């Protein structure tokens, strides 16, 4: 029998009312849009990053109130600053349900020229910070005996290593391994851990690397022959975040790439 009330059915499946999402790297383009999607589904949003102006820009665009979305300042490479996020969000809203781990830097460096300092700084933002986020929020939920959902931002670079993004590719591949490992480890606590793997979306971090030649190569390799729009990550985000819609999904790598990963002849 057809549903008499499809909108009620959908909203129940994806309802995040009274949930709180911490979006690390939410000051940026993709995670900012993902945060907007969570807000539309009813969640309160804690945007974590270094740049308050960018967060305020998002809030202005969204038309959100300080009760719905707030900025929490932290350099994600610093454990002392990461440790302050959970108490600050708990003081604000008293609960945390969802974590998005998405801060990034991706400076283009030819492989033979990568210095130890560059290697360390790219790994710190893209991998160490994701590990710290998982560790701190996982511990918080386990201690409270509360369920949670973690979405780690991986990348096409994890499954198709990208030229001029060697260290970034390493970090993003390691995120998939960490995600699978924690999904196994924490299923018994009701903590789901998944990765989201975007294809190519113009953002801040990849502006420098997207020259004419590279754009042409990406288009040739993308069956849909276009970049993604950040808005096209919202559906995947809600699926992974929602305890109703995503109840049996853990350890997955959800690819949103216009077909890039499966391009063949
Ligand atoms: N744009 C793409 O095509 C693409 C593709 C695959 C994966 N991704 C992933 O999606 C996520 C979001 O990327 P984006 O493209 O929106 O990038 P973005 O540059 O727009 O956003 C990244 C954010 O991380 C913040 N950040 C960097 N270092 C930080 C630090 N030390 N402390 C706190 N914040 C810090 C930046 O200020 C920025 O706001 C990243 O994990 C990225 O690797 C993006």
Descriptive account of the structure:
This protein has helices spanning about 5-15, 30-40, 50-60, 80, 85-95, 115-145, 155-160, 165-185, 210-220, 235-240; strands at about 20-25, 45-50, 70-75, 100, 150-155, 190-200, 255. With about 260 residues, the protein is α/β, with parallel strands linked by helices. It has one domain (about 15-250): Rossmann fold. Strands 3-2-1-4-5-6-7 form a seven-stranded parallel beta sheet, with helices on both faces. Strand 4 (about 100), helix 6 (about 115-145) and strand 5 (about 150-155) form a beta-alpha-beta unit. The model has no long low-confidence stretch (mean pLDDT about 95). The structure holds nicotinamide-adenine-dinucleotide (NAD). Nicotinamide-adenine-dinucleotide (NAD) binds near residues 54, 76, 125, 155 and 206.
The general outline is globular
Q: Percent range for helical residues?
A: 40-55%
Q: Could you give the count of β-strands?
A: 7
N/C terminus separation: 42 Å
The CATH class turns out to be Alpha Beta
Mean pLDDT over the full residue set: 96
Instruction: Please provide the ordered H/E string of secondary-structure elements.
Output: HEHEHEHHEHEHHEHHE
Cα-based radius of gyration, to the nearest Å: 18 Å
SS field, number of helical segments: 10
Q: What is CATH's topology name?
A: Rossmann fold
Characterize the largest beta sheet: strand count, sense, and whether it forms a barrel.
7 strands, parallel
CATH architecture: 3-Layer(aba) Sandwich
CATH superfamily: NAD(P)-binding Rossmann-like Domain
Task: Domain count, please report it.
Answer: 1
Strand order of the largest sheet: 3-2-1-4-5-6-7
Structural class: alpha/beta
The hetero molecules present are: nicotinamide-adenine-dinucleotide
Low-confidence segments? none
């Amino acid at each position: 029998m057809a549903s008499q009330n499809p909108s009620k059915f959908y909203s129940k499946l994806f309802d995040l009312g009274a949930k709180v999402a911490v979006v690390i790297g939410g000051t940026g383009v993709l995670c900012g849009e993902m945060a907007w999607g969570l807000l539309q589904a009813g969640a309160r949003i804690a945007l974590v990053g270094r740049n308050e102006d960018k967060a305020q820009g998002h809030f202005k665009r969204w038309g959100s109130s300080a009760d719905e979305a707030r900025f929490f300042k932290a350099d994600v490479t610093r454990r002392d600053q990461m440790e302050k996020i959970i108490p600050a969000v708990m003081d604000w809203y008293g609960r945390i349900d969802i974590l998005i781990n998405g801060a990034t830097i991706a400076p283009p460096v030819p492989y033979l020229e990568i210095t130890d300092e560059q290697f360390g700084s790219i790994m710190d933002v893209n991998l160490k910070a994701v590990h710290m986020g998982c560790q701190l929020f996982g511990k918080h939920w386990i201690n409270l005996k509360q369920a949670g959902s973690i979405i780690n931002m991986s990348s096409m670079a994890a499954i198709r290593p990208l030229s001029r993004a060697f260290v970034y590719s390493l970090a993003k591949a390691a995120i998939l391994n960490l995600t699978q490992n924690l999904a196994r480890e924490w299923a018994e606590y009701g903590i789901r851990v998944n990765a989201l793997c975007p294809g190519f979306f113009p953002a801040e971090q990849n502006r420098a690397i997207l020259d004419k030649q590279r754009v042409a190569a990406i288009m040739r390799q993308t069956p849909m022959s276009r970049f993604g729009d950040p808005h096209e990550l919202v559906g995947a985000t809600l699926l992974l975040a929602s305890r109703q819609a995503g109840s049996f999904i853990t350890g997955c790598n959800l690819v949103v790439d216009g077909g890039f990963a499966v391009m063949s002849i």
